Amino acid sequence: MIMIFAGRRPDRCALHVAGHAAYAPKGKDIVCAGVSAILNCLAGTLTVFETRGLHTKLNPGDARITCPRSGIVDTLFYAAVIGLIQLANTYPDYIQMRTEGYFRAEEEESD
To answer: What pTM does this model have?
Structure first.
């Protein structure tokens, strides 16, 4: 199972992904490939935009991306989070996801 945490605070955005889907044998796992593609796209795009304070760790089964918030960072993280949620909805037996600070309902609950 892939465990994903996406968090957004007033000063930072963060994604942490741990585990493997085990949907198919290594090298043929479309669930792991989908998650990896989204994470690599986010990390690569943040690097191209020379995001200050960007920290990335992209290892199989353990990936983290964190950086200070800005307009472009918020947009890119939102796009990645939405893509990951769509994958989690499509493959609920293989991905478990928790978000914090990304959607209005969560903000209302914490008030």
So the answer is: 0.89
